Amino acid sequence: MSAYRPSQLVRGAALAVAVLVLSACERPPIEYVQSGYRGTAMGQVYNPRHLATQADVNVAPAALPPAGEGTPAAKTIYQNVPVLGDLSAAEFTRLMVAITGWVAPESEGCGYCHNLANLASDEKYTKVVSRRMIQMTQYINATWKQHVASSGNPGAGVTCHTCHRGKQVPANVWVAERPPGPQGGSLGNRVGQNNPVRAVAWSTLPQDAFTPYFLGTGESIRVAATTALPTGYVDTLNRTEKTYGLMMHMSDGLGVNCTFCHNSRNFGDWENSTPQRVTAWHGIRMVREINNGYLAPLASALPTHRKGPLGDAPKANCATCHQGAYKPLYGTPVLADYATALGGAPPATAAAALRKGGRS
């Protein structure tokens, strides 16, 4: 048996190291799209193979044909329709058919939310949840135009499909997780780090990028002070790492790099940032508001198997709508065909009816 010569061992070791180092790299071709002034290194780097895999996910479904006019209001024909009762019966039916395709196309159809023997019944939790989600969609389209219609397109906005994409539960939602293992010891408190998860794009940053910013009153999103000797507010290393975790999530969720919003010359400077940073600012606050007002309170209505390990309801983050695209569904104006039903906040009378029935 012949022995390996030292030179072979060296070459083998070098090859192994090269494979290990390059395993984290993406193979060409990579496309670069300039998004800022030349010389500022502001551009977006795309992998055509990744774009191809997400293209089908970000296709908006064809809208159903317009409803006929002249039909009476849905509330005069159907019982227990406190949110959509003012729609015409034809438009109401059209929306129900569309929601079935958006949320439950391969399951029970109408029976996913309704008792087919008594459509007015609220006995199924899915009907209670869907009613609240319709209210949330109306609220987003009416109140958060700075984010969902920032392009000025009157048809821009969201529908149930924006998040669900044909799934009963959207693919990208989050719940509170149990902390990973011991957090102390001789190495100190790891504050949830060194436990790579998708929430922070598989980095070793603190794994909870959502609770501090997308729930409650929201922590300040800060990285560094703007003066050499700051007075008053001083950012800690821990806050900086959590902020980077959020930024990693946003970059991954939108399929963009940092310069989509920031000028890398000075990340904190608003004057040199892109308009998308303002849109993102509104988006963070929108997600926090719908989590607090609509999604988190649903925990009391959900069965155990639909809750997280700590008993909370699934909540939204940036990827819930965007799903890897810089604009959900690449900016298709999905609201244009359903603006009558989903384009405005629920009337005060509907909200009052829901509160009276304990469904708000």
Query: Which outline best applies?
Result: globular
CATH class of the largest domain: Mainly Alpha
Q: What's the helical proportion of residues?
A: 25-40%
Q: Which CATH architecture of the largest domain is right?
A: Orthogonal Bundle
| Secondary-structure-derived class | mainly alpha
The multimeric state of the shown protein is single chain
Task: Write a concise keyword list for the protein shown above.
Photosynthetic Reaction Center, subunit C, domain 2, mainly alpha, single chain, 2 strands, two-stranded antiparallel ribbon, about 350 residues, disordered C terminus
Q: What is the topology?
A:
Elements: H1 6-22, E1 31-34, E2 43-46, H2 48-55, H3 89-103, H4 125-143, H5 145-148, H6 160-164, H7 211-214, H8 237-254, H9 275-295, H10 318-322, H11 339-342, H12 348-356
Antiparallel strand pairs: 1-2
